Amino acid sequence: MAIERTFSIIKPDAVARNAIGGVVARLEEGGLRVVASRMVRLTEAQARAFYAVHKERPFYNDLVTFMTEGPVVVQVLEGEDAILRNRQIMGATNPEKADAGTIRKLFGTNIERNAVHGSDAPETAAQEIAFFFSGAELATLAR
Ligand code: CMP
Predict the structure, then answer these.
(1) Minimal CA–CA distance to 86: which of 29, 135, 134?
(2) Which of 115, 117, 129, 132 is catalytic?
């Protein structure tokens, strides 16, 4: 197993539910460490760019509206097999289908308002981390 970094967003629905601490607790209990974190309000342009891979999907405009409705927490998580581990801790995209005890089951509402985002592969993790955090910033924060 390798030590990896992955990118995570605590989405506006979870922030509005006062669940930042609940989400981070589950990530930490699952063996992940927060190595960078910032609360931001995404602009429409940022949300569109971040989710550009979905721009042809019917839910794209709604997703952009949702992701800009309130503040989010963007974070970098580190740990053994962090990308897969984070996805396991988050649970299935649709909270209704997520396993008991997962973040999306606990804090999500529906397939759009699903509490958290997590990178799905090493390439996307690197891209998504770089979208929000500079190399210099990460170097300063590293243990
Ligand atoms: P996320 O993991 O951030 O990646 C893309 C997001 O689009 C996803 O979580 C959901 O918030 C949203 N999403 C994915 N599929 C659908 C869908 N079928 N309908 C509405 N929103 C979706």
Answers:
(1) 29
(2) 117
